[in-house]
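Quick start: what a row looks like.
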Amino acid sequence: MNDTPRVDPGLAAGNRIELAGHTAQHFGWQVKAGVATVTLNRPERKNPLTFESYAELRDLFGRLRFATDVHVVVLHGAGDNFCSGGDVHEIIGPLIRLKAPELLMFTRMTGELVKAMRACPQPIVAAIDGVCAGAGAIMAMASDLRVGTARSKTAFLFNRVGLAGCDMGACAMLPRIVGQGRASELLYTGRALPGEEALAWGFLNRLVAPDTLLAEAHQLAADLAAGPTFANGITKTMLHQEWNMGIDQAIEAEAQAQALCMLTEDFGRAYNAFVAKQKPVFGGN
């Protein structure tokens, strides 16, 4: 069995794209120096998601697989909150009037957003302040790195609205981040996880002041964008794929993936810089 990361046929067909000029309809979008910023921008409602923003986010993260000008993504909410989840009036209300086939279409669509976030090669840095609830907590969970504030409150509150905690991959992913027991507590109770506790549990990677949150997230993103971005994409792919591998299979897959990275010019750049006692300047190829 060949366990190397699969090369999407779209790339071979020449479907590489640039997204700097892309215009988003339901959230903010900006690309600068290889770092894309997604801004959930309904601050008056704590940045909830709608059917339309769900779908557009799913499609955008799907397109990132082929983007040549985006190396890292920063995801944050406008104002003092990250995201309050699905809009109560624009999503929750309509859902209770739908039948099972339409409901399944919706839940599959929201799951596709998480799958797209995990499948894109760019590391995603979530900047979390204030309310981070429901689908907002899921998007934070699906990100690769999370920078938060002490006043942030992350809540997987699905059971509080009569739903199971197994939403959008939470029962698979959250235990891998914070552990089975802690994930069980969050998913059974729906309680909020304050920033300092989230840091202690490993859900947050860093805790910063609210007024420096976005700058800190962008600095982290810039550091990643200045690194070997092709190799970082391989790292993300293997972190995701190896969840379903045994140790022997994972070691072989990593051997093949690492050999592929050794063919890149960045590998040679790093060696030459070391010999010259300089800091390497990576090109992402």
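That is the whole record. Residues 1-13 have pLDDT under 50 and may be disordered. The chain is about 45% helix and 15% strand.
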